[in-house]
Write a structure and sequence with these properties.
The chain is built from twelve helices and four strands. It has about 260 residues and is mainly alpha-helical.
């Protein structure tokens, strides 16, 4: 049964938000791909050597999207929120957020571990070119099949402090709880790869450092998909899905980013 925001117009709120969520995921992928271009090439190089038609179409699409979403933004944001969308937080709040994130990941791992299962033989085979065998043996997954990871109480407290742009955990495809991955709906190959990148990041960096970098990246970028840890996971998952992609080691990629202070 559909729920309607406006019975006269027959607007399905469920369908609308489903399509909006799909569009948002596509925008995140486009944002990550563009970020990779920005890291590798200067604007002058792109303007000089890029295919003119590709550049024109990309610029036109970006401008049209900006105009469309900006029009929506002016309708939904209050004037005071437009002046200040995000606060940076005190050092004590940042430290508390890092401690909470570590505790949350540990607690959720314990919650979902008994319900989880090892990766299947076919999944291990498909991912063996990118992850160490030990990690694939260790990782576990659980499909909630329409159920959702509960929203932690801490996020309500964070919003009350002015942090409006916190992640919407119930609408994320998957959440990585150290080495246990919970899927809000069904497991997909792309989401599994993305989640396993986070497992590697946690193993390489250590849980506390991972949490610290995640919080710092969120404060700087004001959204979870601008956190460098997330950008790297998105970019590697996109690389994994490319046709005829080359084999690469996720661990080596994470070590390279960590050594270069790119997180």
């Amino acid at each position: 049964m559909y729920e309607y925001e406006d019975p006269e117009q027959g607007v399905s709120v469920i369908q609308l938000n489903s399509e909006l969520r799909h569009a948002q995921l596509e925008l995140v992928s486009a944002h990550c791909a563009t970020h990779q271009l920005r890291l590798r090439y200067s604007a002058d190089d792109l303007a000089r050597f890029g295919h003119r038609d590709l550049l024109r179409k990309s610029a036109e699409a970006a401008s049209a999207l900006h105009e469309f979403y900006r029009g929506i933004e002016t309708r939904v944001l209050k004037p005071e929120a437009q002046r200040e969308l995000f606060t940076q937080g005190t050092p004590e709040q940042v430290t508390g957020a890092v401690e909470w994130l570590c505790d949350y990941l540990r607690q959720q791992r314990e919650t979902y571990f008994p319900k989880s299962e090892p990766l299947s033989a076919s999944q291990k085979t498909a991912l063996a070119r990118y992850f160490r065998p030990r990690l694939l043996e260790q990782a576990r997954v659980v499909e909630l099949q329409g159920a959702r990871v509960p929203v932690p109480d801490f996020l309500a407290q964070v919003r009350a402090l002015g942090f409006d742009n916190v992640p919407d955990v119930q609408h994320m495809e998957s959440l990585t709880f150290i080495d246990v991955i919970a899927f809000n709906e069904r497991l997909s190959e792309r989401a599994l790869f993305h989640a396993l990148v986070h497992t590697v990041q946690i193993q390489v960096l250590g849980l506390e450092r991972y949490a610290e970098l995640w919080v710092q990246g969120f404060l700087k970028g004001r959204a979870h998909y601008t956190v460098p840890l997330e950008i790297h996971a998105f970019s590697l998952a996109s690389k994994f899905l490319r046709p005829l992609t080359e084999t690469f080691s996720v661990e080596d990629q994470v070590l390279h980013w960590a050594a270069g202070n790119r997180y």
